[in-house]
Specification:
about 90 residues; alpha+beta; about 30% helix; 2 strands
């Protein structure tokens, strides 16, 4: 790796190479934390590992529900309640 990319912000991992020696691999320290855009809480069911978010299967990235991985469960409940209540008031015309 280029000397300019050997930053202290990267994690250093010692790896054995097939020739018998060891090398240092530099890996970014990325931790993904999905937050709800409405209330700001962290979303449950979403992994924090960046490698799973980037390269993992779609089912491992977010929960299987409406707005899964986008808004938290509490905000989802309030949004669904408001939408159902507004739809029911429009039917009474």
């Amino acid at each position: 790796m280029r000397p300019g990319l050997r930053s202290r912000s990267k994690r250093r991992i010692r790896k054995r190479v097939p020739g018998g020696g060891s090398r240092i691999h530099y890996v970014m320290r990325r931790r993904y934390r999905a937050t709800c855009p409405i209330c700001g809480r962290s979303i449950g069911g979403v992994p924090r590992d960046y490698n799973i978010i980037r390269w993992g299967p779609k089912t491992a990235k977010r929960p299987e529900r409406y707005f899964g991985g986008v808004i938290c469960s509490n905000c989802l409940a309030t949004v669904l309640k408001l939408s159902v209540r507004s739809a029911s008031t429009n039917l009474r015309v």
